[in-house]
Amino acid sequence: MAFICRFAPSPTGPLHIGGVRTALFNWLLAKKNKGKFYLRIEDTDKERSKEEFKKQIIESLSWIGIKHDDKEFIQSKNINKHKEVAEELLKKGFAYKCYCSEEEIKKQKEKCKNQGIPYVYNRKWRDAKDVAIPKDAKPVIRFKSKISGNTIIKDLVQGEINISNSIIEDFVILRQDGSPTYQLSATVDDHIMKVSHVIRGDDHKINTFKQKQIYESMKWNIPHFAHIPLIHSEKGSKLSKRDKSSTINDYVKIGILPDALRNYLLRLGWAYKDKEIFTLNESIQLFDLKGVGKSPSKLDMSRILSLNEHYIKNIDEKILFEFLKNYSQKFKKAIDPSKEDMIVKSISFLKNKAKTLEDIYNNSQYILKEEITITPEDIKLLDSNSKKIISEFLEEFMKIKLPTKESLEKIVNSLISKHKTNFKGVGQPLRIALVGSRFGPGIYNIILSLPKNEIEKRISKAS
RNA sequence: GGUCCCAUCGUCUAACGGUUAGGACAGAUGGUUUUCAAUCAUCUAAUCGGGGUUCGAUUCCCCGUGGGACCGCCA
Q1: Which nucleotide has its C1' atom closest to residue A313's CA?
Q2: Element (H, E) at A296
Q3: Residues in chain A with pLDDT < 70?
Q4: Straight-line distance from CA A239 to C1' B2, in Å?
Q5: Angle A396-A398-A403 (CA atoms, 0-180°, nearest 5)?
Q6: CA distance A207 to A204
Q7: How far apart are CA A89 and CA A182, in angstroms?
Q8: CB of A333 under 7 A from strand B?
Q9: Which of A42, A154, A334, A373 could lock A329 by a disulfide, CB 3.0 to 4.6 Å apart?
Q10: Exposed, middle or buried: residue A102 (CB in 10 Å: 0-12, 13-18, 19+)?
């Protein structure tokens, strides 16, 4: 049997990483089973659907490495088909026209609320043969849900879910304006696309009981369902579009690598033994629905950072540089082409102090900036003795044609004994002069990464 | 409120009904170091509560408690 998955977001807001994880799980499963992964844009809410969100969704997925098969499906293009199905359901007696006004429904709800009883649509028009149809009233079409008995859904993650049919109301499938609702459109499209596995957030669980009835009425094959637990914000509730750090871009802009976030999202709610680091291939091979937990998980920034640190330290340095270059272009000041070589040479030690691309960028400032400004706190550390030491260093340094670590060590050591000081006595003022701060890379790394004239300039200025 | 779901260190999670309840992140301490990091070593830290079933329960069942989701002519 073909293995067909889909991710079906609505473009009514930016995709957050909960959605990205749902997409990832779908995609992984499709890849693992050599099946298909489709993207369906559910844009039937005309008011709120925006082209920019559709773009953001596709960009987010592609950033993390998820590519959908074929062209994306646009749900609104299929509306006629959805309407046809509604008509068919109507004809076959599985649906009916309901002339209740929105006012009327609203009143019923309020009444129920006041009485403290749960609201279910009263099925007024379900078998209304003798009721007079109000003039000028446009009907909605409601699905005739089962009234008695129980329905069990075998969910691939949640196990068996059993509910009483009576709590599923006669839901609307066609609105007053004739447009199809989500319950109808999603079901019809899943059928048309021959979706075999519907993997979606836990919040869709109840919908399954509605949609299953449509499948049954139409005598369509029912796909497998898997409802994965939601991701919670630090506050402990469902991730929403308003949460900080919830979209892909929130992570991109602080310099998180796609692989790191992919790895993080993979392990959020899923595990394979004790394994923490998964290459892309490993995640495709090892991922399965059995390993998905049932309880929601909380977002943990420090873990994302730690994973990112791991990937920063382990990916190829050329690739890392490309990431950095891109990152600076997009979010900071683009790296001056004349400085690129210096960064490339230094990235091996710059990355060691970094958890993010932003960290690397910040660590590179002493190379990228034209002017070094020494922080007020550090300028105090440059006393007359230190100044003397660094100018003596410069004098010796300028005599060397091609500086190496060894030759630099020689100078430093002689200064240490001459001034009866320790390494710090020489290294600290040098670092302050060269970097503008007492924090920074190893002093030999700094000196070897900078052009000679630049060193001369900075030390003379500071001493 | 109704319905459904869930429950292991602070967090993410592992553990055929038999383990000293494991790993990772975070935290703490110490070593190393040239500052900050990094790194190495060590440590702290959990089976929500109560009943069963069983020789034996984190695991199975029931009841509480806590948390979450849903309850739209949104998706």
Answers
A1: B38
A2: none
A3: 1, 130
A4: 24
A5: 90
A6: 5
A7: 16
A8: no
A9: A334
A10: exposed
Q: How long is the CA A312 to C1' B20 vector, in angstroms?
A: 37
Residue type, A414: S
Nucleotides on chain B within 7 angstroms of protein Cβ: 1-8, 10-14, 22-26, 34-38, 67-75
Give CA–CA dist A175/A454, Å, rounded.
Answer: 71
Q: Please name the helix (run of DSSP H) or strand (run of DSSP E) that holds residue A151, with its range, or none.
A: strand A150-155
Quickly count: other Cβ atoms within 10 Å of residue A242's Cβ: 9
Q: What's the Å distance between residue A159 CA and nucleotide B61 C1'?
A: 17
Instruction: Give the H or E element holding residue A252.
Output: helix A248-252
pTM attached to this predicted model: 0.94
The whole-angstrom separation of Cα A385 and Cα A151 is 85
Q: Is this complex scored with an ipTM above 0.90? A: yes
Query: Rounded to whole angstroms, how far apart are CA atoms A242 and A14?
Result: 10
pLDDT at residue A236 in the model: 82
User: For position A383, what pLDDT does the model report?
Assistant: 85
Helices (H), A255-352: 258-267, 280-286, 301-314, 317-331, 340-350
Instruction: Please count the CA atoms within 13 angstroms of the CA of A240 that sit on its side-chain side.
Output: 5
- What are the start-end ranges of the H helices in A34-78? 51-64
Residue A386 Cα to chain centre, angstroms = 49
Nucleotide nearest to A227 (CA to C1'): B5
What does the buried/exposed string (b/e) look like for A433-443 if buried means 16 or more CB atoms within 10 Å of the residue's CB? bbbbbbebbeb
- Residue partners of A82: CB distance under 8 A and separation at least 6: A180, A184, A185, A188, A189
Three-state SS for A441-459 is CCHHHHHHHCCHHHHHHHH
The tens digit of pLDDT for each residue in A194-252 reads: 999 999 999 999 999 999 999 999 999 999 999 999 999 888 888 887 787 789 999 99
Name residue A350's amino acid. L
